[in-house]
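Example 3.2
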Amino acid sequence: MLDIRNKHYDNNAILGQIIPTVVLDVKFYFLKCYIIFPISGIALVRRKSRRG
């Protein structure tokens, strides 16, 4: 029984470590989207306008 409880506590500790890192990754992903995608979008629009 103690082993099972310890495993549960370990899982909670692991989740406690994983969730903040996932949240940070998501924040950085959105930052990349806001920074990189507008720039690439402008580049695509310029390429399309050159072709047209």
